[in-house]
TrEMBL record:
Protein name: ABC-2 type transport system ATP-binding protein
ABC transporter domain span: 9-235
Nucleotide-binding recorded as keyword: yes
Signal peptide: none
InterPro entries: AAA+_ATPase (IPR003593), ABC_transporter-like_ATP-bd (IPR003439), ABC_transporter-like_CS (IPR017871), ABC_Transporter_VariousFunc (IPR051782), P-loop_NTPase (IPR027417)
Length: 292
């Protein structure tokens, strides 16, 4: 089996709903490339966790396909499971084990597990290997799961709300360890509604709202096409404006903000603009929008 079979996840015409509940996904299409860190953004209840679980093969589509290479994810084939790690928002770990014993379960399953990386990450997160998991706080248990996930060597990493339950120093450590942990052939999807926690970490952003993908774009392309800035007054023709006491934050096309190069995309401002319907795929140049 070659690595080429693990390069992306492909979702085609996906429909999903829970029994006796409104549909969460209708005709959803999405392709994720290898070597990307992707921020999956959405408000609570938008369907982020459901989409992550469909990618992980924990839920079965009502119709349509969710594939990892040649493998339908819900089939849970061993070659797929060996190349995928899912870290849920609410961790559930066997408290009777020590950290070292728990790590051993993953080390034996993932053929690419990097024990040296794991030990370094545990040091960063201030977790001792001979501690019993029952003695770890919820935040420490979550950091343990994050450290294990980053050490598996899996080609597809799915982290659902990884910073929930972490204090401010731990969030800073999370950003630090994540920025230096991924290889070129790995893809990570980070689901969150706390967009500031993943700023400067992601290469692409997906905005999910009411089970629909409202935007899927490369941040580098967004930066080339738009200005994300603030001023005493937003320029004429700005696509989206948020007023505040000191002036306004805004998104405008580059050619409408002469002399203002702005900065890297502000994810919170971008998210708000998309949810408000002010910035969607139709605003992007054809070559700049990621196929979805």
């Amino acid at each position: 089996m070659t690595v080429k079979q693990f390069e992306m996840i492909s979702i085609k015409e996906l429909n999903f709903s829970y029994p006796k509940k409104p549909s969460l996904c209708e005709g959803l299409n999405l392709q994720l490339e290898e070597g990307k860190v992707i921020g999956l953004l959405g408000m609570n209840g938008a369907g982020k966790s459901t989409l992550m679980r469909l990618m992980a093969g924990l839920l079965k589509p009502v119709s349509g396909e969710v594939n990892f290479g040649i493998y339908p994810t819900f089939d849970r084939a061993v070659p797929f499971l060996n190349q995928m790690i899912f870290v849920p928002e609410k961790v559930s770990v066997p408290e009777f084990l020590s950290v070292k014993e728990y790590v051993g379960v993953y080390k034996d399953f993932y053929e690419g597990f990097d024990l040296d990386k794991l030990e370094n990450l545990l040091v960063e997160f201030k977790i001792v290997g001979d501690q019993r998991i029952s003695n770890l706080s919820f935040g420490q248990q979550k950091k343990l799961q994050i450290a294990i996930g980053l050490s598996t060597g899996a080609k597809l990493m799915l982290f659902d709300e990884p910073t929930n339950g972490l204090d401010i120093p731990s969030k800073s450590t999370f950003r630090k360890v994540l920025s230096g942990s991924l290889q070129e052939d790995q893809t990570m999807v980070i689901s969150t509604h706390q967009v500031k926690d993943i700023e400067n970490l992601v290469d692409q952003v997906i905005v999910l709202d009411e089970g629909m993908i409202k935007l899927h774009a490369d941040l580098a392309e967004l930066e080339n096409e738009f200005v994300f800035s603030q001023a005493a007054k937003a320029p004429e023709g700005a696509i989206y404006v948020e007023s505040h006491l000191l002036g306004a934050q805004y998104i405008a096309r580059q050619f409408e903000s002469v002399g203002d190069l702005g900065g890297s995309p502000d994810l919170e401002l971008l998210f708000n603009a998309v949810i408000a319907g002010k910035l969607t795929g139709e605003f992007l140049s054809t070559q700049n929008q990621v196929t979805s």
